[in-house]
Amino acid sequence: MGLANINHNFRSRYLIAAKKFKGENMIVDCHTHVRFSADDIETSEHLEAAQTVDACIVLATANGPSEEVNKKLAEYVNKHKEKMVGFAVVDPPKDKVSVNNLKPITDKLGLKGAVLYCSACGFHPANSRAMRFYESAQELGLPVFFHNGSHLGADAVLEYTQPYLLDEVAREFASLKIIIGSMGVPFVEQTLSMVAKHENVYADLTIRPSNVWQTYNMVVAANEREVMDKLLFGSGFPFGNAGECIETLLGFNMLLADTNLPTVPRVNIRNIVERDTLALLGIKDKSAGAREERGEKVKERKSVSVLRENGKTSSDG
């Protein structure tokens, strides 16, 4: 079966295999969105896709005033706290960015990070108000996701998508957790340089199942630069779902079986999928909660297996 023909049983097969491999695995989708509508179709689809993983980060969109968008997001993710983490949208040139103004994001809304759309909103990542925002975010422990390089509209400023523009931010605020969305496409080499240079800068490897060659080149480049440990798994929902993306990521080496092209050790690829992104970003309470819930499910399955085995033994006797 080709990678384009997705096997819908893959999700359960992969999760079972992962849990057998290592009891402490965490599968986190660091890049999802949901659009809220009257019919709730997309929220239902998002909930279904989220069952593939232990936890997912839901990024607020830049469609509308930040306060309204963040409130809707909070209402949604707080109904599914065991599975979801919300990142609030912030537009520094327009929004208030002091510590006191940002505190309600965590204290009232229960959101755990922030997402910025520099190119779409038309501001330089290191402009003065943005720098004040990073100072507040660092003080509050809010990780910041830069959603700059994918699905750009005609009015977006391509210049502001370049990951090297974040170098000043990372130097000035060394403790701030930064995620470069979608590998900084089309500026992937800049992204690799940034994650290699800065301890707290990570890259979201959002997979496009229809673009296997692009995925291959990004992963090989990261492996050659020895920065695989800085890549975070993402699906980019609704443009992809985690099950398909995991299969694409784990399966692209098979395409190279009869070639002399370089491959990447499967364990290195698997480590991307099984990386505890929440712990890396300092969102420890959610990470611990997801681990606890997963542990309870594993115990349930083991109990069922023991009961079945005992029943079989009794009947055999």
The dominant shape is: globular
Residue-averaged pLDDT: 86
- Which fold does the CATH topology refer to? TIM Barrel
Major β-sheet annotation: 8 strands, parallel
- End-to-end distance, in Å? 44 Å
According to DSSP, the number of beta strands is 8
Instruction: For the largest sheet, list the strands in their spatial order.
Output: 1-2-3-4-5-6-7-8
**Beta content:** 5-15%
Short description:
This protein has helices spanning 10-21, 41-50, 66-77, 99-107, 118-121, 128-140, 167-172, 188-197, 212-224, 242-251, 266-273, 277-280, 284-316; strands spanning 28-32, 55-59, 84-89, 113-116, 144-146, 178-180, 201-206, 231-234. The protein is of the alpha/beta class and 317 residues long. The chain has a single domain (10-316), classed as TIM Barrel, CATH 3.20.20.
In words, what does this structure look like?
By secondary structure, the protein is an alpha/beta fold. It has a single domain, classed as Metal-dependent hydrolases (TIM Barrel). The chain contains 13 helices and eight strands. Strands 1-2-3-4-5-6-7-8 form an eight-stranded parallel beta sheet. Strand 2, helix 3 and strand 3 form a beta-alpha-beta unit.
List its salient traits:
317 residues; alpha/beta; TIM Barrel; 13 helices; globular; disordered N terminus
